[in-house]
């Protein structure tokens, strides 16, 4: 499975505990299988 993140570098060890807890979807490292969505 190929997954995408809105980044131009490879993230080998994502920090899933980082982020703003009460905004958007909360803390985490979010991925999508839709390349256009990640690059948008």
Characterize this entry briefly.
With 40 residues, the protein is largely without helices or strands. The protein is built from one helix and no strands.
3D structure, described in words:
This protein is largely without helices or strands and 40 residues long. The protein has one helix at 35-39. The chain is globular. The chain starts with 34 loop residues before the first helix and ends with a helix.
The CA-CA distance between the termini, in Å, is 20 Å
Could you report the average pLDDT, rounded to the nearest whole number? 83
H-E string:
H
How many individual β-strands?
Answer: 0
How large is the share of residues in beta strands?
under 5%
What can be said about the biggest beta sheet?
none
Cα Rg:
11 Å
- 3D shape: globular
Structural descriptors:
40 residues, little secondary structure, single chain, globular, 12% helix
SSE order and pairing:
Layout: H1 35-39
